[in-house]
Specification:
With about 375 residues, this protein is an alpha/beta fold. The chain is built from nine helices and 13 strands. It has a nine-stranded mixed sheet, with helices on both faces. Strands 3-2-6-7 form a four-stranded mixed sheet. A hairpin with a 2-residue loop joins strand 6 and strand 7. Helix 3 packs parallel to helix 4. The longest helix is centred in the middle third of the chain and has 15 residues. The protein is globular, with a radius of gyration of 20 Å. It starts with 20 loop residues before the first strand and ends in a 40-residue tail after the last helix.
Length: about 375
């Protein structure tokens, strides 16, 4: 049987991305890059001396998820905290330059999270972290919850991006997840082990192999280990789907309504895996909110990740790059490769929204139970 063309399957969802509106709730960071050359070892210690040639800034953490969504054409609002420092100003400027809504970003009296990477000859020499990990005060969390509550009826999806830096707490999850479910909104989670049992009944989670193993208290060394873990997590959390990323080995997709699906990597060259998980959850969520099934959304996200790992530094994929990748790969297998027991999700393309006309009537439904 002839495989359906990509233009008739996965590529069809890309033009729908600009109509999708997403809230990204989580730990906002700024990624700083110092680019240089190394020609000698320091006389003071056995470390390389980096001659700085240039510097650059990028949104990081949850801000990078928002950046990935925006790069693919989606509309996005970031919800989180920054400090009252120069790093916060730089992060806000980077987000504004990308037309990412920062009205949900709250300034508080603790440092903005910053990751500084020193890169020489296309290799990372060292990373320097500035951060405070303690959970945010209840009053600050309440402010973030109000932001989500005020915006939830006007978005197609909510992403919970948990980097363990204090924004994602029990208080926030116990408010935001029911809100999203009440409005039948897609809700996806990039999880951390300490909060795993609080993610119950979301649409989908996107842990990597290590995070999935930590949630169950064991290492996942083989494909069979991952299969058992995925099925156990699905039962335990009662979510619709689980997308376990395996780095250079691809992904495993688990669905409550079907058999597990193994998705091999499509990356041809890997220069830098930094931020690849952000690309996966951003693309996966955009595709789901555009009407794709879990299997279709996972394959689209897999191709997007294959693009970004082929770039140096924290990178994003564009619709043009992703479309070209899908066509070149001929990956039209989203529907054909589903398990016979699988069922198509009822996510429909979002209706058009014109800024300034207020809230529109939701004319589409989602299968959130």
């Amino acid at each position: 049987m002839t495989k359906p063309a990509a233009s008739d399957t996965l590529v069809q969802f890309l033009p729908r991305f600009p109509r999708v509106r997403v809230l990204v709730v989580g730990d906002l960071m700024l990624d700083e890059f110092i680019w240089g050359k190394v020609s000698r070892i320091s006389p003071e210690a056995p470390v390389p001396v980096v001659w700085v040639q240039s510097e650059s800034m990028m949104p990081g953490g949850a801000a990078n998820v928002a950046n990935n969504i925006r790069a693919l054409g989606g509309q996005v609002r970031a919800v989180g905290v920054v400090g009252e420092d120069r790093w916060a100003s730089l992060l806000r400027s980077e987000l504004a330059a990308r037309k990412i809504d920062t009205s949900g970003v709250v300034a508080i009296s603790r440092p903005t999270t910053v990751k500084t990477r020193v890169i020489a000859h296309h290799q990372q020499v060292v990373r320097v972290d500035r951060e405070v990990k303690e959970p945010l005060p209840a009053g600050v969390i309440e402010r973030l919850i109000k932001v989500v509550a005020g915006a939830i009826s006007d978005v197609e999806a909510v992403i919970i991006e948990d980097y363990g830096k204090g924004v994602i707490t029990r208080q926030l999850l116990e408010a935001v997840i029911p809100l999203a479910r009440k409005h039948r909104t897609v809700i996806t989670v990039d999880p951390k082990q300490e909060h795993f049992d609080l993610y119950r009944r979301v649409t989908a989670l996107t842990p990597n192999r290590t995070e999935a193993g930590e949630a169950l208290g064991r290492e996942l060394e083989t494909d069979r280990d991952v299969e058992r873990a995925g099925e156990e997590i699905l039962r335990r959390l009662e979510c619709e789907g689980l997308l376990v990323t395996l780095g250079e080995e691809g992904m495993w997709l688990f669905e409550r309504t079907g058999r597990p699906t193994r998705i091999p990597t499509v990356a041809q060259e890997v220069f830098d895996v930094a931020g690849a998980g952000d690309t996966v959850i951003g693309t996966f969520t955009l595709a789901l909110a555009s009407g794709a099934t879990m299997a279709e959304a996972a394959r689209i996200a897999n191709h997007a990740a294959g693009i970004v790992v082929g770039k140096l530094g924290v990178a994003t994929a564009t619709p043009e790059e992703l479309g070209a990748k899908l066509v070149a790969a001929g990956d039209g297998r989203g529907a054909a490769d589903r398990s016979p027991r699988g069922a198509r999700h009822s996510h429909r393309p979002p209706t058009a929204w014109v800024p300034g006309l207020g809230r529109r009537t939701r004319r589409h439904s989602r299968s959130v139970t």
